Amino acid sequence: MTVNSKDRIVVAYDGSPDAQTALTWAIRTALLTEQPVEAVIATAADDLMPQRSLLWGDHLEEVRRAAAQGLGEAPLQDASGEARAGPAVPVVLAAAADAGLLVGGSRAPAPGAGVAPR
Question: Which of 44, 37, 48 is nearest to 84 (CA)?
C-alpha cells in the first residue's frame, strides 16, 4: 500500500486514561486500514484549560514512554510518537492538518469547575 499524508492517523496523547483509550482506538483502526499512526504530545498548558500543568521532565518522559509502549506493542508497519512544544489545541490541529483522521480522548472537568458529578 502506498501511504500519503492523507492516510495518516494522528492521535492526541497526554498519558491520561482517555488518551490511552484514544491511542488504542487509533491503533486498532490503523491495523484494520493499514494506515500509519502518529501520537502527538503537546508540552504546554492549553489556554482553554489553564489549570493543567506543563508536561516536562520526568512526567514528559513517562508520557513519551507510555505512548511508545502502546505503539510498539501493536504490529503496525508505521507508527511514531512525537512531543511538540505548545498548547494542546494548536499543536494537535497543526499535526493533523494533512492527516486523514484525528483521534482524541475526552477529559473530565477539573475539580471545582462548577459541573455537577454524574
Answer: 44
Is residue 28 packed enough to be buried (19+ CB in 10 Å), middle (13-18) or exposed (0-12)?
A: exposed
Distances 90 to 95, 103, 114, 116 between C-alpha atoms, Å: 8, 14, 26, 29
Does residue 55 contact residue 27 with C-beta atoms inside 8 Å?
no
Helices 57-73, 17-33: axis angle to 10 degrees equals 30
Q: Which helix (H) or strand (E) holds 82?
A: strand 79-87
pLDDT tens for each residue of 58-105: 888 999 999 999 999 999 989 999 999 888 889 999 999 999 999 998
Distance CA 16, CA 63 (A): 9
pTM, entire model = 0.78
Please list, in sequence order, all residues whose beta carbon lies within 8 angstroms of the beta carbon of residue 61, skipping any fewer than 6 positions away.
none
